[in-house]
Specification:
mainly alpha; 10 helices; about 70% helix; about 0% strand
Length: about 190
């Protein structure tokens, strides 16, 4: 019984006073205004299910982290997802992050996977991706350094990034080139 009483006290004293800010946050990031009460209730439900009434450093950051996760989950479930909506949600409340350590571990794993994928690319393609995306050189600087045309750099970068994305999504990082006939039509259209 004391646990329920502690959770009720925590919720009424620390969470409910943040409701106005929470509703504003949800309204800013929610497509349909009619969904705001549902999202708010889902946030409260998740908070009570986790109910970390004691041991929290900041209830406010916990509320907005849970809200952010609810909004992301709803956006993922929606048939049409706005990239701006996801980008906006990701930038919110970066001051205190309850799951920072988990995200660091995930980021390290993704970086290792990206490095493995980069190693799978053919040498020229790998070098183009490295110079452009890791070192941040422009197309012209990359072309000058590799002594090839900027068209070659653009094409190698496109092929390399596609293969790298394929690898990151569980594929084999193979360069897939269009059939010669399609490539000829693309070159003709570019002129």
């Amino acid at each position: 019984m004391t646990d329920d009483a502690a959770i009720k006290h925590w919720f009424t004293q620390e969470v409910l006073p943040l409701e106005r800010d929470l509703v504003r946050f949800i309204a800013r990031h929610c497509r349909d205004g009619a969904d705001i009460p549902d999202v708010r209730q889902e946030v409260y439900e998740r908070m009570l299910a986790g109910s970390p009434a004691d041991g929290l450093r900041s209830t406010r950051s916990y509320v907005f982290t849970v809200a952010r996760h609810v909004l992301i989950d709803r956006a993922r479930r929606a048939k049409i997802v706005s990239f701006e909506q996801i980008a906006d949600i990701d930038t919110v409340d970066a001051q205190v992050d309850v799951l920072a350590e988990e995200r660091h571990m995930t980021a390290r794993d993704e970086l290792r996977r990206a490095m493995l994928g980069l190693e799978q690319l053919p040498p020229r393609c790998r070098e183009v991706v490295r110079l452009r995306k890791v070192e941040g050189l422009s197309i012209r600087e990359t072309a000058d350094r590799m002594q090839v045309s900027h068209h070659t750099i653009e094409r190698q970068l496109t092929l390399g990034l596609r293969a790298l994305a394929n690898f990151m999504l569980g594929g084999d990082a193979r360069i897939s080139r269009p059939p010669a006939r399609v490539a000829a039509l693309v070159r003709k259209a570019d002129r």
